[in-house]
Amino acid sequence: MELEVRHLRMLCAIADHGSLTRAAAALGMLQPALTRQLQRLEHGLGGPLFTRSGNGSVPTPLGEYVLSRARAVLPALDGINSDALREAAGADIPSRIRFGAVLGPLAAGLLPPLRRLLPAAEIRLLTEPSNAVLTDLVAGGRLELAAILEFPGYELPMKPDMRRHVIATEPVFVLLPDDHPAVGWPEVCLAELAREDWVLEPPDDNRFREYVTMACRDAGFMPRVCYEAEAGSLTDLISSGQAIGLGQATFRVTPRIVVKPLAGNPLWASHALVWQKYGPIAGLAPKLISAAEEVYEAAVDRSPTFLEWRDRRAQQS
């Protein structure tokens, strides 16, 4: 079987994500199709390229050899692609913008500015919780723009032909049921939540769960995560009084949920835009950044707790 560029990218994706499931999502494939393709490659090359277990996919010695050669070849090919995109970018106006975003103020908020900037373009939105998947989709030309949410020390490495611009950095706040004893406090110490039942989103490659666990450990405890849930179920569990959770400072006002700052601001998050350096929207990047900043500030204005936190911080400085 003759190796092709797409095969090399596939192998690198499996190695980078450590999982066939996550690699398939990043490549825009179904996992069974990726598994079959990998099996054909392994048959053609004469041996297994990865060992697969409950802990993920790890390269074998043969896999390490092939990956080392692939990682040497792909940057040169990407350079050719980037140069071609740079030459083509010029004055061309894209007819379609595929925008991917994690849940947050920039997801739906950036759609109206995109339509104003590109009135003739078809605007599509993909919501996706994984920063890695979104960034890979942009790098692979399957999205033109992505909005991601990153945490200090856990930022994604960016390829040379990719651009990331941080729109805003904000504290992470605690979300409490409206009958919680701490709802009357101006802020809550992380250590005071040691005995609480927590709900957090399942562990993923954004590593927020790891970030939170490390902060709790520094505060002297390990969080008792009784529930793992996505955004909708997460807020249901909190509003019904069954757990406490964490949220963005721009968390929308939600019935029966009270948002409170954490004392000392132990947790932070950064909203960022990602695009190809020479991609079809590169020329619009300054306007998109400005629009995203306006969208973010509008979200802040809808978040009373965040506005109060900002005012107190300004008075203390």
TrEMBL record:
Domain HTH lysR-type: 1-60
Keyword Protein transport: no
InterPro entries: LysR_HTH_N, LysR_subst-bd, WH-like_DNA-bd_sf, WH_DNA-bd_sf
GO cellular component, one term: protein-DNA complex
SUPFAM superfamilies per UniProt: Periplasmic binding protein-like II (SSF53850), Winged helix' DNA-binding domain (SSF46785)
GO molecular function, one term: DNA binding
Pfam families: HTH_1, LysR_substrate
Keywords recorded for this protein, A-Z: Activator, DNA-binding, Transcription, Transcription regulation
Family as reported in the entry's similarity comment: Belongs to the LysR transcriptional regulatory family.
PANTHER family reported in the protein's UniProt record: SMALL NEUTRAL PROTEASE REGULATORY PROTEIN (PTHR30346:SF30), TRANSCRIPTIONAL DUAL REGULATOR HCAR-RELATED (PTHR30346)
The name this protein goes by in its record: LysR family transcriptional regulator
Lineage: Bacteria, Bacillati, Actinomycetota, Actinomycetes, Mycobacteriales
